[in-house]
Specification:
InterPro entries: Marf1. It comes from Eruca vesicaria subsp. sativa. This is NYN domain-containing protein. It is a single chain. It contains 9 helices and 11 strands. Strand 1, helix 1 (20-37) and strand 2 (44-49) form a beta-alpha-beta unit. It folds into 2 domains: 2-140, 3-Layer(aba) Sandwich (Rossmann fold); 144-328, no CATH class. By secondary structure, the protein is an alpha/beta fold.
Amino acid sequence: MSMLFWNMDDYPIPAAGGGVEDGLGFIRNNIVEVGHRMGFHGFMEIWVYCSRTGVNNPSPLDMTCYLVHHALSVYGPYGPPDLVVIAKPVKELDRVLECLRLRGHPILLIDPTAITGGGSFFSVESLLGCTQFLTADQYLKDLSSSHLENDTSKILDFFEPIRPVKENRTGVFWDAEDFSFPPFSTPDEIFARIESALVERGLIYKLTIWVYLDDDKKGTCGGGKKEWASRIYFLPGGDKASRRIRMANDIYFWAKDDSENISFEGISILFSDQFKDDAEYSESSDMLQNLVACGTCRILSVSPMDIINKPEESPEWPGLLIDIGREWVSGAWLL
């Protein structure tokens, strides 16, 4: 099975003499032919992203959220589905495609900017000339029960799948721009205080913490190198919107990496003010609700409260923050 993800805001359908539908049908057939020539056989499912379609259903703000969701939710008899992507290669898309490649997905990335001339814009030969084949990695097949050790000096940034562990897991995803840390605290001290608060509230399994920073602040802790023992990792997240998108994608990678372990129970705790129940945040919140609905993990969302979001003034940090700002995410299917 193959899945095509096409961002029509980046690359709209060229004008066709018989109308848009004829043009789309012609292009679809050519894309399927390109896939066959490069080894992508069988049925191809097409997902189109465009903010100017004029349909009632709102378009996602970022296609990577739905790319991650659908790619990781389908597993055919021959392994992960083949992916075909038509979109401009931007930072988060490049990262997501590499993460999916390392999880066993063969990928065709089509970049029509390399094509010149209107008449042959989406011809078979033109598409072949601007298609990059990303070979699937065999990393997942090498994971076994004998590879359960964690290297605490290694940065876990989701490029490689999270190795399976025997224990249930708690993953904390923390937006450091929304929730500041106590000043002058070391990473190990931050980890210990968060762990202690979660233990007191019965929310702890094997704990790992990911902290998302503005890109300008990358390396704030440890100069970009992990020189501490605790499982806390500082990642570049970009601006406000970019952090929301990356955090949602990473939670999905984290939850799905061990979902085949039938004994797995996971709690994801999300510290951010960017996952709200309104249109602006719909693509990320729907994605997380789907994880809950299918039983992959439980998700606790903690929103910042000005009155308690001052770690330098609160000896109970972050316990009081969790008590007042937390809310369990309810399950809902993402269509």
